[in-house]
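Quick start: what a row looks like.
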Amino acid sequence: MVALLVAGAAALLAAILGTPILIRTLHARGIGQQIRDDGPQGHFSKAGTPTMGGITMVGAAAFGYLASHIGTGAVFTAAGALVVLVVLGAAAVGFLDDWIKVSRQRSLGLNKTAKTLGLVAVFLVFAVLAVYRAKVNTDLSFARSIDIDLANPVYVLWAVLILLAISNAVNLSDGLDGLAAGSAMYGFGAFVFIGFWQFRHPECYGVGPALDLSLIAAALAGSCAGFLWWNAAPAKIFMGDTGSLALGTGLGALALTTNTHLLLPVVGGLFVMITSSVVIQVAVFQAFHRRVFRMAPIHHHFELVGWPETTVIVRFWILASLCTAVAIGLFYADFLQSGCQGASLG
């Protein structure tokens, strides 16, 4: 428990103290966000706001994770190291995308193909090492294994698809000040509980690196909270793809390594809703040349129907917190039905 507190607190402080330094550095270099011409009118005032804040988010999370192992008895694991590395890898792809935007002063960075190929390369390395080095459980799983064993190549493909889906879902959610950071913080909070509960009940779950994974989740949650101090409306800095791709990847990697693949859509229910709004909008428009929403993703639709930006953000945070509560409830309900309540470290 001490290690969890250290991970979260260290990441929180690092993000709170590090973000204003990054803001001043980016301001000094004239690095700011470009705004889409077809976006809500109220967003044009945000042009020039520093971006790439994900740099401090990822750095703070890594710092918190490392700090949690100093003098606490926590042990580094291969699975934990892989989660940290894949988050850094996704952040690197996002950083390249952000850098192209700010250096060329346009709202578009890497094209879709280049970004997808970069992410696939990062995720493929993670998935292969997770199977052959970290020896993660390759069974299909919800809160626990459902006894459907995925062959190693199938699991690798499954892992890459999960990571692509959730990283892009969080990326789509990063359209309002603090929306993605606040919502992801709830998701990481769920994985703090899941990882720690698995650690306390090893005979039930068999996830050896569970505590280490919980520490990563705590560090990521702390970094989101610290960054949110500066990212809350009106934002002093945006996370950019550097942050959104890293956060989504962190959620996906934690779901894979804690063996809770099919619980992830519940944990990240808000991100599923936002992504679904884009899919529905595109599908209906292509089929019937009509729009379901005034603008997709759906948070922009609510802006255009008259909701203030802060109202949209807070209400979506509420939805994210409810998704977290439901996910934890389902996880605990499965534990009660498992018959292994006595499998505890005391």
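That is the whole record. The radius of gyration is 20 Å. The longest strand covers residues 145-149.
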